[in-house]
């Protein structure tokens, strides 16, 4: 569902995200800082700066950045080149209205880029097909475990530099300032942007996709609660906790990164039995499921979770995730609020109202039967 055209932004309704572990590209979220770009058929990537062998490549396949840099004379796990390079800067052909004189760009430390297990990718495919234009065709960077702003789209150049990228979106935009600093013009014009580091790894987070916020349910309804969780930096999701009584007590959700059958519980709203839903293996289409169980591949992927519980409205259903380093989502947004609005990873909450005659009209049924209580279609179409 497009949210805006310039910049081009879009995301799907949460309830369609869980139909498959591998997100189809037509519903994959889209976040850009400007319009979608077009390119000519010929494409070249320039790699230059403080490295032994600067070069220009014609891209014909997708590879790990560590392997490409090794071809240019920079060994795996290099902290600094002999020429003094310590950062890898990614430069796009894209120009933003905030920075009309410089392209969109970002950087990561050279040691990150040259570590094979970091899986930094020069990507030309998405789900075994060419990357769509809105996701960076013909070539983009993918930096797993880091915020999306570091994965530059429409990649033009890679520069090996002595210093961190000084671009606007690296040094001024994606930084996390404390809650007491408010967004008002007098303060923003005098802010010391260098007082905070650029955001890199994203925090642990989780979300409830089913049921939807504001649902009406009868007292004691058995509800199949479902959602996802993910952590930055390649950290695993150690636990997903769900509360159906506004946080007074918790139970652990079942977590999966493979096939995931969803129980066919009759809907407490309309009595309908939902169709069978299966979360398929990522590589099932190729008949090659062995790859799926490699933790090196799965550490960057989301975790799907489910929890079946009785719900007694009025209440809130809440989810929070804990990663393998013991990081937990913050309780309230007040604890992490910042004037840039970044890293909002607090507990996700869904309000549940008590079903009464006439109150439930027009609310989407939580069982995904694609009906409202008034009988009309209730799920947005793509």
From TrEMBL:
Fetch the InterPro entries from UniProt: Ig_E-set (IPR014756), MoCF_OxRdtse_dimer (IPR005066), Mopterin_OxRdtase_euk (IPR008335), OxRdtase_Mopterin-bd_dom (IPR000572), OxRdtase_Mopterin-bd_sf (IPR036374)
GO-annotated molecular function? heme binding; molybdenum ion binding; molybdopterin cofactor binding; sulfite oxidase activity
Q: Which residues form a coiled coil?
A: none
Q: What is this protein called?
A: Sulfite oxidase
Boundaries of every Moybdenum cofactor oxidoreductase dimerisation domain copy:
198-353
Report any one BP term from Gene Ontology.
Answer: sulfur compound metabolic process
The species this protein belongs to is Physcomitrium patens
- Name the keywords, alphabetized: Metal-binding, Molybdenum, Oxidoreductase
Transmembrane ranges, per UniProt, are none
Q: Where is the Oxidoreductase molybdopterin-binding domain?
A: 59-169
The coenzyme or cofactor needed here is: Mo-molybdopterin
Please give the GO cellular component terms listed in this UniProt entry. mitochondrion
In terms of PANTHER family, this protein maps to: SULFITE OXIDASE, MITOCHONDRIAL, SULFITE REDUCTASE
């Amino acid at each position: 569902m497009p949210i805006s055209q310039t910049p081009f932004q879009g995301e799907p309704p949460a309830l369609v995200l869980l139909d498959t572990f591998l997100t189809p590209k037509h519903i994959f979220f889209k976040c850009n800082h400007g319009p979608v770009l077009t390119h000519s058929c010929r494409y070249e990537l320039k790699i230059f700066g403080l490295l032994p062998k600067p070069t220009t490549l014609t891209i014909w396949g997708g590879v790990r950045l560590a392997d490409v840099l090794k071809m240019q004379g920079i060994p795996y796990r290099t902290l600094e080149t002999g020429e003094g390079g310590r950062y890898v800067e990614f430069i796009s052909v894209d120009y933003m209205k905030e920075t009309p004189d410089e392209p969109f760009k970002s950087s990561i430390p050279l040691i990150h880029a040259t570590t094979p297990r970091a899986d930094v990718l020069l990507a030309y495919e998405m789900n075994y097909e060419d990357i769509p234009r809105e996701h960076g065709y013909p070539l983009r960077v993918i930096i797993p475990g880091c915020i999306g702003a570091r994965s530059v789209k429409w990649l033009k150049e890679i520069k090996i530099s002595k210093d961190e990228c000084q671009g606007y979106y690296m040094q001024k935009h994606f930084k996390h300032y404390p809650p007491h600093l408010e967004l008002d013009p007098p303060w923003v014009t005098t802010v010391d942007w260098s007082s905070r580091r650029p955001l890199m790894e994203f925090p642990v987070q989780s979300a409830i996709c089913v049921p939807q916020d504001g649902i009406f349910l009868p007292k004691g309804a058995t509800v199949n609660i479902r959602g996802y969780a993910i952590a930055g930096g390649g950290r695993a999701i150690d636990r997903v906790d769900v509360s159906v009584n506004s946080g007074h007590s918790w139970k652990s959700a079942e977590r999966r990164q493979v096939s995931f059958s969803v129980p066919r519980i009759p809907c407490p709203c309309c009595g309908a039995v939902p169709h069978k839903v299966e979360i398929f293996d990522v590589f099932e289409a190729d008949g090659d499921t062995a790859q799926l169980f490699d933790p090196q591949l799965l550490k960057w992927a989301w975790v799907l979770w489910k929890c079946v519980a009785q719900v007694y409205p009025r209440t809130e259903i809440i989810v929070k995730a804990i990663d393998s380093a013991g990081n937990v989502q913050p309780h309230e947004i007040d604890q992490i609020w910042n004037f840039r609005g970044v890293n909002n990873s607090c507990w996700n909450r869904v309000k549940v109202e008590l079903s009464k005659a006439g109150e439930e009209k027009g609310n989407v049924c939580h069982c995904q039967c694609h009906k409202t209580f008034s009988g009309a279609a209730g799920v947005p179409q793509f």
